[in-house]
Design brief:
The chain contains 22 helices and twelve strands. The strands form five sheets. The chain has a three-stranded parallel β-sheet. The chain has a three-stranded antiparallel β-sheet with strand order 4-5-8. Strand 9, helix 8 and strand 10 form a beta-alpha-beta unit. The N and C termini lie far apart (78 Å).
Length: 501
Protein backbone atom coordinates (compact mmCIF):
# COMPACT_ATOMS: atom_id res chain seq x y z
CA UNK A 1 0.00 0.00 0.00
CA UNK A 2 1.17 3.53 -0.79
CA UNK A 3 2.20 5.49 2.30
CA UNK A 4 3.41 9.09 2.06
CA UNK A 5 4.21 11.72 4.66
CA UNK A 6 4.29 15.47 4.99
CA UNK A 7 7.01 16.30 7.48
CA UNK A 8 7.32 20.04 8.22
CA UNK A 9 9.49 21.58 10.93
CA UNK A 10 7.75 23.82 13.50
CA UNK A 11 10.13 26.73 13.01
CA UNK A 12 7.48 29.35 12.24
CA UNK A 13 4.57 29.83 9.87
CA UNK A 14 4.11 27.15 7.21
CA UNK A 15 5.16 28.60 3.85
CA UNK A 16 2.69 28.19 1.01
CA UNK A 17 5.27 26.01 -0.74
CA UNK A 18 4.95 23.59 2.16
CA UNK A 19 1.21 23.45 1.59
CA UNK A 20 1.87 22.53 -2.05
CA UNK A 21 4.14 19.70 -0.89
CA UNK A 22 1.39 18.48 1.44
CA UNK A 23 -1.13 18.74 -1.41
CA UNK A 24 0.91 16.63 -3.83
CA UNK A 25 1.44 13.99 -1.15
CA UNK A 26 -2.28 14.04 -0.33
CA UNK A 27 -3.36 13.76 -3.99
CA UNK A 28 -1.03 10.84 -4.62
CA UNK A 29 -2.14 9.01 -1.49
CA UNK A 30 -5.85 9.47 -2.25
CA UNK A 31 -5.45 8.48 -5.88
CA UNK A 32 -3.59 5.30 -4.94
CA UNK A 33 -5.89 4.42 -2.07
CA UNK A 34 -2.99 4.95 0.30
CA UNK A 35 -2.22 6.71 3.58
CA UNK A 36 -1.27 10.35 4.13
CA UNK A 37 0.76 10.97 7.30
CA UNK A 38 1.64 14.19 9.13
CA UNK A 39 4.98 13.98 10.93
CA UNK A 40 6.45 16.90 12.86
CA UNK A 41 10.23 17.07 12.47
CA UNK A 42 11.29 19.08 15.51
CA UNK A 43 14.73 17.66 16.22
CA UNK A 44 16.32 21.10 15.85
CA UNK A 45 15.12 22.41 19.20
CA UNK A 46 17.08 25.62 18.77
CA UNK A 47 14.79 26.69 15.94
CA UNK A 48 11.54 25.48 17.52
CA UNK A 49 8.85 28.18 17.61
CA UNK A 50 5.91 27.82 20.03
CA UNK A 51 2.58 27.71 18.22
CA UNK A 52 4.06 26.60 14.90
CA UNK A 53 2.86 23.01 15.25
CA UNK A 54 -0.73 24.11 15.92
CA UNK A 55 -0.45 26.49 12.98
CA UNK A 56 0.58 23.64 10.65
CA UNK A 57 -2.38 21.50 11.72
CA UNK A 58 -4.84 24.38 11.43
CA UNK A 59 -3.52 25.23 7.96
CA UNK A 60 -4.00 21.65 6.76
CA UNK A 61 -7.52 21.61 8.19
CA UNK A 62 -8.38 24.89 6.48
CA UNK A 63 -7.35 23.71 3.02
CA UNK A 64 -8.99 20.32 3.61
CA UNK A 65 -5.88 18.12 3.53
CA UNK A 66 -6.67 15.98 6.55
CA UNK A 67 -4.01 13.37 7.38
CA UNK A 68 -4.96 9.75 8.01
CA UNK A 69 -2.27 9.47 10.69
CA UNK A 70 -0.02 11.87 12.49
CA UNK A 71 0.32 14.52 15.16
CA UNK A 72 -3.19 15.47 16.20
CA UNK A 73 -4.72 12.58 14.27
CA UNK A 74 -3.32 9.45 15.94
CA UNK A 75 -2.30 6.23 14.24
CA UNK A 76 -0.51 2.91 14.82
CA UNK A 77 3.04 4.14 14.12
CA UNK A 78 3.26 6.95 16.63
CA UNK A 79 4.59 8.97 18.18
CA UNK A 80 4.64 11.16 15.08
CA UNK A 81 6.53 14.01 16.71
CA UNK A 82 10.27 13.41 16.40
CA UNK A 83 11.16 14.91 19.77
CA UNK A 84 9.12 12.07 21.28
CA UNK A 85 11.22 9.44 19.48
CA UNK A 86 14.67 10.32 20.83
CA UNK A 87 15.48 6.84 22.16
CA UNK A 88 14.57 5.23 18.84
CA UNK A 89 17.11 7.37 16.99
CA UNK A 90 19.84 6.79 19.57
CA UNK A 91 19.38 3.05 19.29
CA UNK A 92 19.66 3.15 15.51
CA UNK A 93 22.65 5.48 15.55
CA UNK A 94 24.63 3.09 17.75
CA UNK A 95 23.47 0.17 15.62
CA UNK A 96 24.88 1.88 12.53
CA UNK A 97 28.24 2.26 14.30
CA UNK A 98 28.21 -1.45 15.14
CA UNK A 99 27.51 -2.27 11.50
CA UNK A 100 30.59 -0.28 10.48
CA UNK A 101 28.74 2.46 8.59
CA UNK A 102 29.10 5.22 11.20
CA UNK A 103 31.55 6.25 13.91
CA UNK A 104 31.83 8.28 17.10
CA UNK A 105 33.48 11.70 16.82
CA UNK A 106 34.78 13.56 19.89
CA UNK A 107 36.01 16.73 18.17
CA UNK A 108 35.04 19.83 20.13
CA UNK A 109 33.28 22.71 18.36
CA UNK A 110 36.34 24.86 19.12
CA UNK A 111 38.68 22.36 17.49
CA UNK A 112 36.54 22.17 14.37
CA UNK A 113 36.25 25.96 14.18
CA UNK A 114 40.04 26.23 14.38
CA UNK A 115 40.38 23.69 11.59
CA UNK A 116 37.93 25.62 9.41
CA UNK A 117 39.83 28.85 9.99
CA UNK A 118 43.07 27.15 9.07
CA UNK A 119 41.63 25.48 5.97
CA UNK A 120 39.21 27.57 3.92
CA UNK A 121 37.38 24.59 2.40
CA UNK A 122 37.67 22.16 5.30
CA UNK A 123 35.20 19.30 5.20
CA UNK A 124 34.84 16.39 7.61
CA UNK A 125 35.16 13.48 5.15
CA UNK A 126 37.21 10.48 4.06
CA UNK A 127 40.22 12.73 3.42
CA UNK A 128 40.30 14.42 6.83
CA UNK A 129 38.68 12.06 9.34
CA UNK A 130 41.87 10.06 9.99
CA UNK A 131 43.51 13.20 11.35
CA UNK A 132 40.67 14.06 13.71
CA UNK A 133 39.38 12.84 17.08
CA UNK A 134 37.03 9.96 16.35
CA UNK A 135 36.62 6.26 16.98
CA UNK A 136 38.23 5.38 13.63
CA UNK A 137 41.47 6.89 14.96
CA UNK A 138 41.16 6.28 18.70
CA UNK A 139 39.98 2.68 18.49
CA UNK A 140 37.12 0.90 20.21
CA UNK A 141 38.59 0.73 23.73
CA UNK A 142 39.51 4.41 24.01
CA UNK A 143 36.24 5.48 22.42
CA UNK A 144 34.26 3.38 24.89
CA UNK A 145 36.24 4.86 27.80
CA UNK A 146 35.51 8.41 26.65
CA UNK A 147 31.81 7.69 26.22
CA UNK A 148 31.55 6.07 29.66
CA UNK A 149 33.40 9.05 31.14
CA UNK A 150 30.68 11.31 29.81
CA UNK A 151 32.74 13.03 27.14
CA UNK A 152 30.53 14.67 24.52
CA UNK A 153 30.42 12.98 21.14
CA UNK A 154 28.46 12.90 17.91
CA UNK A 155 27.79 10.03 15.55
CA UNK A 156 28.88 10.59 11.95
CA UNK A 157 28.03 8.67 8.79
CA UNK A 158 31.06 6.89 7.36
CA UNK A 159 31.00 7.66 3.63
CA UNK A 160 33.17 5.38 1.55
CA UNK A 161 34.75 7.17 -1.45
CA UNK A 162 34.97 5.97 -5.02
CA UNK A 163 31.43 5.09 -5.97
CA UNK A 164 28.59 6.62 -7.96
CA UNK A 165 25.27 6.83 -6.16
CA UNK A 166 22.29 6.67 -8.53
CA UNK A 167 18.88 7.97 -7.54
CA UNK A 168 15.92 7.24 -9.77
CA UNK A 169 13.85 10.33 -9.16
CA UNK A 170 10.30 10.04 -10.51
CA UNK A 171 10.44 13.67 -11.66
CA UNK A 172 14.09 14.17 -12.60
CA UNK A 173 15.06 10.71 -13.77
CA UNK A 174 18.54 9.33 -13.03
CA UNK A 175 20.43 11.63 -10.65
CA UNK A 176 24.04 10.72 -9.88
CA UNK A 177 26.23 11.73 -6.92
CA UNK A 178 29.88 10.83 -6.39
CA UNK A 179 30.52 9.58 -2.87
CA UNK A 180 34.02 11.09 -2.88
CA UNK A 181 32.38 14.52 -2.86
CA UNK A 182 30.18 13.84 0.16
CA UNK A 183 30.96 14.76 3.76
CA UNK A 184 30.51 12.54 6.79
CA UNK A 185 27.20 13.96 8.00
CA UNK A 186 26.46 14.18 11.71
CA UNK A 187 23.64 11.75 12.47
CA UNK A 188 23.35 12.09 16.24
CA UNK A 189 24.22 15.37 17.95
CA UNK A 190 26.03 15.79 21.25
CA UNK A 191 22.73 16.54 23.02
CA UNK A 192 21.43 13.13 22.01
CA UNK A 193 19.06 14.52 19.39
CA UNK A 194 19.24 13.21 15.83
CA UNK A 195 19.83 15.37 12.80
CA UNK A 196 17.29 15.48 10.02
CA UNK A 197 19.18 12.86 8.06
CA UNK A 198 19.01 10.09 10.64
CA UNK A 199 15.53 10.84 11.97
CA UNK A 200 14.10 11.14 8.48
CA UNK A 201 15.43 7.77 7.34
CA UNK A 202 14.57 5.87 10.52
CA UNK A 203 11.04 7.28 10.60
CA UNK A 204 10.40 6.66 6.92
CA UNK A 205 11.48 3.05 7.36
CA UNK A 206 9.55 2.37 10.57
CA UNK A 207 6.45 4.10 9.21
CA UNK A 208 6.73 2.09 5.98
CA UNK A 209 6.84 5.14 3.71
CA UNK A 210 6.74 4.05 0.06
CA UNK A 211 7.17 7.42 -1.69
CA UNK A 212 8.99 10.55 -0.57
CA UNK A 213 7.59 13.65 -2.29
CA UNK A 214 9.45 16.73 -1.08
CA UNK A 215 11.04 19.99 -2.16
CA UNK A 216 13.98 20.30 -4.52
CA UNK A 217 16.17 21.65 -1.72
CA UNK A 218 16.40 18.13 -0.27
CA UNK A 219 17.76 16.55 -3.43
CA UNK A 220 21.46 17.03 -2.49
CA UNK A 221 20.84 15.22 0.80
CA UNK A 222 19.34 12.19 -0.87
CA UNK A 223 22.74 10.62 -1.59
CA UNK A 224 23.41 10.46 2.14
CA UNK A 225 19.95 9.02 2.69
CA UNK A 226 20.61 6.25 0.18
CA UNK A 227 23.80 5.40 2.05
CA UNK A 228 21.87 5.26 5.29
CA UNK A 229 19.31 2.86 3.83
CA UNK A 230 22.16 0.68 2.63
CA UNK A 231 23.97 0.92 5.96
CA UNK A 232 20.92 -0.32 7.84
CA UNK A 233 20.27 -3.04 5.28
CA UNK A 234 16.98 -1.48 4.26
CA UNK A 235 17.75 -1.25 0.53
CA UNK A 236 14.76 -3.36 -0.49
CA UNK A 237 12.26 -1.08 1.25
CA UNK A 238 13.80 2.24 0.20
CA UNK A 239 11.01 4.61 -0.91
CA UNK A 240 10.78 6.12 -4.37
CA UNK A 241 11.93 9.76 -4.44
CA UNK A 242 10.28 12.74 -6.12
CA UNK A 243 11.79 16.20 -5.71
CA UNK A 244 9.41 19.04 -6.50
CA UNK A 245 10.40 22.15 -8.46
CA UNK A 246 10.90 25.42 -6.64
CA UNK A 247 8.18 28.06 -6.44
CA UNK A 248 9.69 31.20 -7.91
CA UNK A 249 9.13 34.87 -7.09
CA UNK A 250 6.30 36.67 -8.96
CA UNK A 251 8.94 38.72 -10.77
CA UNK A 252 12.68 38.48 -10.93
CA UNK A 253 14.87 35.53 -10.08
CA UNK A 254 15.03 33.29 -7.06
CA UNK A 255 12.60 31.20 -5.08
CA UNK A 256 9.61 32.69 -3.28
CA UNK A 257 10.54 33.64 0.29
CA UNK A 258 8.51 34.74 3.28
CA UNK A 259 9.86 38.28 2.85
CA UNK A 260 8.41 38.44 -0.65
CA UNK A 261 4.95 38.74 0.90
CA UNK A 262 5.71 42.19 2.27
CA UNK A 263 7.83 43.14 -0.73
CA UNK A 264 5.12 42.39 -3.32
CA UNK A 265 2.10 42.96 -1.08
CA UNK A 266 0.85 39.38 -1.39
CA UNK A 267 0.23 36.51 1.04
CA UNK A 268 2.77 33.68 0.97
CA UNK A 269 1.36 31.77 3.93
CA UNK A 270 -1.95 29.88 4.19
CA UNK A 271 -2.98 31.60 7.44
CA UNK A 272 -1.90 34.83 9.08
CA UNK A 273 1.00 34.57 11.52
CA UNK A 274 1.73 37.01 14.30
CA UNK A 275 5.40 37.01 15.19
CA UNK A 276 7.26 38.89 17.88
CA UNK A 277 7.83 41.83 15.53
CA UNK A 278 5.98 43.41 12.62
CA UNK A 279 8.64 42.06 10.26
CA UNK A 280 7.91 38.53 11.45
CA UNK A 281 4.13 38.90 11.12
CA UNK A 282 2.43 37.93 7.87
CA UNK A 283 -1.05 37.97 6.33
CA UNK A 284 -2.40 34.64 5.15
CA UNK A 285 -4.48 33.57 2.20
CA UNK A 286 -7.40 32.86 4.52
CA UNK A 287 -7.38 36.32 6.09
CA UNK A 288 -6.90 37.95 2.68
CA UNK A 289 -10.26 36.47 1.75
CA UNK A 290 -9.40 33.40 -0.31
CA UNK A 291 -11.56 30.30 -0.43
CA UNK A 292 -9.54 27.18 0.44
CA UNK A 293 -10.76 25.47 -2.75
CA UNK A 294 -9.27 28.28 -4.83
CA UNK A 295 -5.95 28.04 -3.01
CA UNK A 296 -5.82 24.27 -3.60
CA UNK A 297 -6.58 24.71 -7.30
CA UNK A 298 -3.91 27.41 -7.62
CA UNK A 299 -1.24 25.41 -5.78
CA UNK A 300 -1.95 22.22 -7.70
CA UNK A 301 -1.03 23.95 -10.94
CA UNK A 302 2.22 25.41 -9.57
CA UNK A 303 4.44 22.86 -11.23
CA UNK A 304 1.86 20.33 -12.44
CA UNK A 305 -0.85 20.23 -15.08
CA UNK A 306 -2.83 17.32 -16.50
CA UNK A 307 -2.77 18.79 -20.01
CA UNK A 308 -5.50 20.50 -22.02
CA UNK A 309 -6.96 23.98 -21.64
CA UNK A 310 -9.02 23.42 -18.51
CA UNK A 311 -7.59 24.87 -15.31
CA UNK A 312 -10.44 24.78 -12.79
CA UNK A 313 -10.53 21.51 -10.88
CA UNK A 314 -12.24 20.37 -7.71
CA UNK A 315 -10.21 18.43 -5.18
CA UNK A 316 -11.91 15.24 -6.35
CA UNK A 317 -10.94 15.96 -9.95
CA UNK A 318 -7.35 16.70 -8.92
CA UNK A 319 -7.18 13.34 -7.17
CA UNK A 320 -8.32 11.56 -10.32
CA UNK A 321 -6.00 13.47 -12.66
CA UNK A 322 -2.85 13.78 -10.58
CA UNK A 323 0.35 12.05 -11.64
CA UNK A 324 3.89 12.57 -10.41
CA UNK A 325 5.20 12.10 -13.94
CA UNK A 326 3.42 15.29 -15.06
CA UNK A 327 5.23 17.44 -12.49
CA UNK A 328 7.73 19.69 -14.22
CA UNK A 329 11.41 19.99 -13.37
CA UNK A 330 11.68 23.75 -13.76
CA UNK A 331 10.63 26.31 -11.19
CA UNK A 332 6.99 27.45 -11.16
CA UNK A 333 6.29 31.19 -11.16
CA UNK A 334 4.07 32.37 -8.27
CA UNK A 335 1.44 34.21 -10.31
CA UNK A 336 -0.67 36.03 -7.75
CA UNK A 337 -3.00 37.42 -10.39
CA UNK A 338 -3.79 33.82 -11.33
CA UNK A 339 -4.54 33.05 -7.69
CA UNK A 340 -6.95 35.99 -7.57
CA UNK A 341 -8.59 34.80 -10.78
CA UNK A 342 -9.19 31.38 -9.25
CA UNK A 343 -10.72 32.97 -6.18
CA UNK A 344 -13.09 35.05 -8.29
CA UNK A 345 -14.21 31.95 -10.16
CA UNK A 346 -14.81 29.96 -7.01
CA UNK A 347 -16.71 32.77 -5.31
CA UNK A 348 -18.85 33.24 -8.41
CA UNK A 349 -19.67 29.52 -8.57
CA UNK A 350 -20.39 29.11 -4.87
CA UNK A 351 -23.90 28.57 -3.51
CA UNK A 352 -25.34 31.82 -2.15
CA UNK A 353 -26.31 30.44 1.24
CA UNK A 354 -22.93 28.80 1.77
CA UNK A 355 -21.20 32.00 0.70
CA UNK A 356 -23.35 34.04 3.06
CA UNK A 357 -22.18 31.89 5.98
CA UNK A 358 -18.58 32.83 5.19
CA UNK A 359 -19.44 36.51 4.83
CA UNK A 360 -21.52 36.72 8.03
CA UNK A 361 -18.60 36.90 10.51
CA UNK A 362 -16.99 39.60 8.35
CA UNK A 363 -20.26 41.57 8.38
CA UNK A 364 -20.77 41.15 12.11
CA UNK A 365 -17.20 42.24 12.79
CA UNK A 366 -18.19 45.59 11.29
CA UNK A 367 -21.37 45.72 13.34
CA UNK A 368 -23.71 44.77 10.49
CA UNK A 369 -26.72 42.75 11.66
CA UNK A 370 -28.90 41.37 8.87
CA UNK A 371 -31.00 38.25 8.34
CA UNK A 372 -29.72 35.14 6.60
CA UNK A 373 -32.16 35.74 3.76
CA UNK A 374 -31.04 39.33 3.27
CA UNK A 375 -27.35 38.42 3.37
CA UNK A 376 -27.85 35.61 0.87
CA UNK A 377 -29.57 38.00 -1.55
CA UNK A 378 -26.86 40.62 -1.10
CA UNK A 379 -24.00 38.21 -1.81
CA UNK A 380 -25.85 36.87 -4.85
CA UNK A 381 -25.74 40.36 -6.37
CA UNK A 382 -22.16 41.06 -5.35
CA UNK A 383 -20.35 37.79 -6.02
CA UNK A 384 -19.67 38.52 -9.69
CA UNK A 385 -17.96 41.76 -8.67
CA UNK A 386 -15.65 40.72 -5.88
CA UNK A 387 -12.24 39.06 -5.70
CA UNK A 388 -11.94 38.41 -1.98
CA UNK A 389 -14.45 37.62 0.76
CA UNK A 390 -13.91 40.95 2.60
CA UNK A 391 -14.95 42.74 -0.60
CA UNK A 392 -18.56 41.84 0.21
CA UNK A 393 -18.52 44.16 3.23
CA UNK A 394 -15.93 46.65 1.97
CA UNK A 395 -16.81 47.28 -1.66
CA UNK A 396 -20.41 46.23 -1.00
CA UNK A 397 -20.80 48.18 2.25
CA UNK A 398 -23.87 49.91 0.78
CA UNK A 399 -25.93 46.78 1.39
CA UNK A 400 -25.41 47.31 5.11
CA UNK A 401 -25.32 51.08 5.61
CA UNK A 402 -26.24 54.28 3.74
CA UNK A 403 -24.04 55.50 0.90
CA UNK A 404 -20.92 57.18 2.28
CA UNK A 405 -19.82 59.09 -0.79
CA UNK A 406 -20.99 59.67 -4.33
CA UNK A 407 -19.26 59.69 -7.69
CA UNK A 408 -19.14 63.47 -7.96
CA UNK A 409 -17.84 63.54 -11.52
CA UNK A 410 -20.68 61.35 -12.79
CA UNK A 411 -23.24 63.44 -10.91
CA UNK A 412 -21.98 66.71 -12.38
CA UNK A 413 -22.28 65.29 -15.88
CA UNK A 414 -25.85 64.05 -15.43
CA UNK A 415 -27.63 66.17 -12.85
CA UNK A 416 -29.45 69.28 -14.03
CA UNK A 417 -32.69 71.09 -13.30
CA UNK A 418 -34.85 69.21 -15.80
CA UNK A 419 -33.57 65.80 -14.76
CA UNK A 420 -33.98 66.74 -11.11
CA UNK A 421 -37.73 67.29 -11.64
CA UNK A 422 -38.10 63.96 -13.42
CA UNK A 423 -36.07 62.20 -10.71
CA UNK A 424 -38.25 63.70 -7.96
CA UNK A 425 -41.45 62.55 -9.68
CA UNK A 426 -39.99 59.05 -10.22
CA UNK A 427 -39.11 58.86 -6.52
CA UNK A 428 -42.74 59.59 -5.58
CA UNK A 429 -44.01 56.91 -7.93
CA UNK A 430 -41.53 54.29 -6.65
CA UNK A 431 -42.58 55.09 -3.08
CA UNK A 432 -46.05 53.67 -3.71
CA UNK A 433 -45.31 51.17 -6.46
CA UNK A 434 -46.55 47.61 -5.91
CA UNK A 435 -45.07 45.05 -5.91
CA UNK A 436 -41.61 46.34 -5.05
CA UNK A 437 -39.86 43.64 -7.08
CA UNK A 438 -36.99 43.95 -9.56
CA UNK A 439 -38.80 42.82 -12.71
CA UNK A 440 -41.90 44.92 -12.10
CA UNK A 441 -39.85 47.91 -10.98
CA UNK A 442 -37.73 47.83 -14.10
CA UNK A 443 -40.75 47.65 -16.39
CA UNK A 444 -42.55 50.47 -14.59
CA UNK A 445 -39.49 52.75 -14.60
CA UNK A 446 -38.91 52.17 -18.31
CA UNK A 447 -42.55 53.08 -19.03
CA UNK A 448 -42.19 56.20 -16.88
CA UNK A 449 -39.00 57.23 -18.70
CA UNK A 450 -40.67 56.78 -22.07
CA UNK A 451 -43.67 58.84 -20.99
CA UNK A 452 -41.41 61.65 -19.83
CA UNK A 453 -39.49 61.68 -23.08
CA UNK A 454 -36.09 61.29 -21.47
CA UNK A 455 -33.40 58.76 -22.24
CA UNK A 456 -32.68 55.74 -20.00
CA UNK A 457 -29.04 56.89 -19.86
CA UNK A 458 -30.17 60.10 -18.19
CA UNK A 459 -32.06 58.42 -15.34
CA UNK A 460 -30.79 54.88 -14.72
CA UNK A 461 -27.20 55.91 -13.88
CA UNK A 462 -28.57 58.37 -11.31
CA UNK A 463 -30.64 55.61 -9.74
CA UNK A 464 -27.51 53.50 -9.44
CA UNK A 465 -25.50 56.38 -7.90
CA UNK A 466 -28.31 57.01 -5.42
CA UNK A 467 -28.36 53.39 -4.30
CA UNK A 468 -24.64 52.50 -4.25
CA UNK A 469 -22.80 55.80 -4.72
CA UNK A 470 -21.00 54.82 -7.91
CA UNK A 471 -21.56 53.94 -11.53
CA UNK A 472 -20.09 50.52 -10.80
CA UNK A 473 -22.24 48.11 -8.93
CA UNK A 474 -24.85 45.36 -9.14
CA UNK A 475 -28.02 45.62 -11.20
CA UNK A 476 -30.08 48.65 -10.17
CA UNK A 477 -33.50 47.08 -9.73
CA UNK A 478 -32.24 43.89 -8.10
CA UNK A 479 -30.36 46.12 -5.65
CA UNK A 480 -33.51 48.14 -4.96
CA UNK A 481 -35.47 44.97 -4.26
CA UNK A 482 -32.87 43.71 -1.79
CA UNK A 483 -32.62 47.07 -0.02
CA UNK A 484 -36.41 47.29 0.15
CA UNK A 485 -38.80 50.13 -0.48
CA UNK A 486 -38.07 52.19 2.63
CA UNK A 487 -34.27 52.18 2.24
CA UNK A 488 -34.43 52.69 -1.53
CA UNK A 489 -36.66 55.76 -1.25
CA UNK A 490 -34.51 57.12 1.58
CA UNK A 491 -31.44 56.90 -0.66
CA UNK A 492 -33.20 58.55 -3.61
CA UNK A 493 -34.26 61.41 -1.30
CA UNK A 494 -30.74 61.64 0.11
CA UNK A 495 -29.31 62.14 -3.37
CA UNK A 496 -31.85 64.85 -4.17
CA UNK A 497 -31.08 66.58 -0.89
CA UNK A 498 -27.39 66.47 -1.69
CA UNK A 499 -28.04 67.95 -5.13
CA UNK A 500 -30.15 70.75 -3.60
CA UNK A 501 -33.54 69.75 -4.94
Amino acid sequence: MVRVRFAPSPTGALHIGGVRTALYNYLFARQQGGTFILRIEDTDQGRYVPGAEDYIIEALRWVGLLPDEGVGFGGPDGPYRQSDRKEIYQKHAHELVERGHAYYAFDTPEALDARRQAEEHFTYNHLTRNGLSNSLVLGETESKRRIEAGEPFVVRLKVQPGRSIHIQDLIRGDVVFESSELDDKVLLKADGMPTYHLANIVDDHLMRITHVIRGEEWLPSTAHHVLLYEGFGWDATMPRFSHLPLIMKPVGNGKLSKRDGAKFGIPVFPLSWKGETAEDSFEGFREAGFLPEAVINFLALLGWHPGGDEDVFSLEQLIQLFSIEHIGKGGARFDYEKAKSFNQKYIHAMDNEALAKLVRPLAEAKGYQVSDEYLSKAVSLMKERVTFLPDFVQTGYYFFEPVREYDEEALQKRWNGDIALVFAELTKKMAIFEPFKAVELEEAVKVFIQEKGVKPGEILPLLRIALVGTMKGPAVFETAEVLGREETIARLNALMLKCNV
